[in-house]
């Protein structure tokens, strides 16, 4: 019985070793078409390593299971063996080859796509993951976010019985090539990926509805941009190719750039300015303690309000003397009780308003 790794058993390490000669030759031929040193992720028993070792190129092996380090060093003396986790190890070779653990495929892919020194990658992953990354049947958000800088291709399907022990799903060989000329400048990577994420998670029926709710530009500019990139209004985000994504982002990112704020000028000398807008009117200074009332300027103020016909007569009626009251007698009080007495209201005539219980309220009919 072989020793147990401190990082877990076969399930924790995702060890399903490839033994199919056909799949091994396919990986070797793909690696032969590349140039430069090779870095292999998870060599395991060394089945893929043996094919790469015959190429005679510098080879680096990154293995997490410490129980297999000595076997790899003895079997491949010219190779450099690292006991490390690929999620934390440096990726510093131009060619990457690896049979990725099925339960860690996405984290390793994210780590790989963020590294900058490699050029080609040949990966054996879960079949469904390989299909999604290659955009078969529609691309995923992750593929669309990295498509301007990488080319994803699905090579072939590897059946489950080609592994030992046999997994519950099939595998797939996926290749990733870094584009020589990117569709979007790399300095815009963060903004572009946020744009793609907003489109995939946004609401709306089709790209036109989604982009309209994102409020990136006006409707006419949006329609012309979609026409230039051959994007229909009912097209779903997963159906766009990398060129369409790059074209939409480049046009909408430029049109949505904030414009310079207009310079504020004085409105006093502009055409159509009113005296209400003119704040340069001088205030009359009145000595304090004199009791004088400031006189209102005789200059008419243009307010644009329509005069109310008959307002002066109504004001005179309100100012008229109440019959039966002496004009020389001053009002004794202005409290509520005195005013009610003047109007002929007596407290005993009023009924106290008490809150009526809800169960005693009349029912609504009809």
Automatic annotation (TrEMBL):
Polar residues bias: start-end ranges: 254-267
UniProt-listed NCBIfam families: Erm23S_rRNA_broad
InterPro entries on file: KsgA/Erm, rRNA_Ade_Mease_Trfase_CS, rRNA_Ade_methylase_Trfase_N, SAM-dependent_MTases_sf
CDD domains on file: AdoMet_MTases
Classification via Gene3D superfamilies: Vaccinia Virus protein VP39
Positions of region (Disordered): 254-299, 325-366
Record flagged with keyword Transferase: yes
PANTHER family: DIMETHYLADENOSINE TRANSFERASE, DIMETHYLADENOSINE TRANSFERASE-RELATED
Domain of life: Bacteria
GO molecular function: 23S rRNA (adenine(2085)-N(6))-dimethyltransferase activity; RNA binding; rRNA (adenine-N6,N6-)-dimethyltransferase activity
Record-linked SUPFAM superfamilies: S-adenosyl-L-methionine-dependent methyltransferases (SSF53335)
PROSITE patterns: RRNA_A_DIMETH (PS01131), SAM_RNA_A_N6_MT (PS51689)
Family classification: Belongs to the class I-like SAM-binding methyltransferase superfamily. rRNA adenine N(6)-methyltransferase family.
Name used for this protein in its record: 23S rRNA (Adenine-N6)-dimethyltransferase
Amino-acid positions noted as binding S-adenosyl-L-methionine in the UniProt annotation, renumbered to this chain: 16, 18, 42, 63, 85, 99
């Amino acid at each position: 019985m072989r020793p147990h790794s401190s990082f877990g058993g076969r399930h924790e390490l995702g060890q399903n070793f490839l033994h199919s000669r056909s799949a091994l030759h396919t990986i070797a031929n793909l690696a032969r078409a590349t140039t430069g040193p090779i870095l292999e992720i998870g060599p395991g028993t060394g089945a893929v390593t043996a094919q790469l070792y015959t190429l005679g190129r510098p080879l680096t092996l990154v293995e997490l299971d410490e129980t297999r380090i000595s076997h790899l060093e003895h079997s491949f003396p010219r190779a450099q063996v690292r006991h490390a986790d690929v999620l934390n190890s440096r990726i510093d070779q131009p060619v990457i080859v690896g049979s990725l653990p099925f339960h860690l495929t996405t984290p390793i892919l994210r780590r790989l796509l963020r590294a900058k020194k490699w050029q080609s990658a040949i990966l054996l992953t879960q079949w469904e993951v390989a299909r999604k990354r290659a955009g078969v049947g529609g691309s995923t958000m992750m593929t669309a976010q990295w498509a301007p800088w990488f080319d994803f291709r699905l090579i072939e399907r590897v059946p489950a019985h080609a592994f030992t022990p046999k997994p519950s799903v099939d595998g797939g060989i996926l290749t990733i090539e870094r584009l020589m000329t990117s569709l979007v400048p790399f300095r815009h990577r963060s903004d572009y990926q946020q744009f793609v994420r907003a489109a995939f998670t946004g609401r709306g029926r089709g790209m036109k509805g989604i982009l309209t709710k994102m409020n990136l530009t006006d409707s006419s500019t949006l329609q012309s941009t979609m026409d230039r990139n051959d994007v229909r209004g009912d097209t779903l985000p997963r159906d766009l190719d990398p060129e369409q994504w790059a074209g939409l982002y480049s046009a909408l990112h430029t049109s949505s750039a904030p414009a310079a704020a207009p310079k504020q000028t004085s409105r006093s000398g502009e055409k159509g300015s009113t005296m209400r807008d003119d704040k340069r009117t001088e205030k009359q200074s009145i000595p304090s303690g004199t009791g004088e009332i400031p006189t209102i300027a005789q200059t008419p103020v243009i307010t644009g309000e329509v005069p109310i016909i008959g307002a002066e007569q109504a004001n005179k009626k309100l100012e008229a003397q109440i019959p039966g009251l002496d004009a020389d007698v001053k009002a004794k009080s202005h409290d509520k009780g005195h005013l009610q007495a003047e109007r002929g209201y007596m407290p005993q005539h009023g009924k106290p308003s008490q809150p009526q219980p809800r169960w005693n309220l009349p029912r609504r009919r009809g």
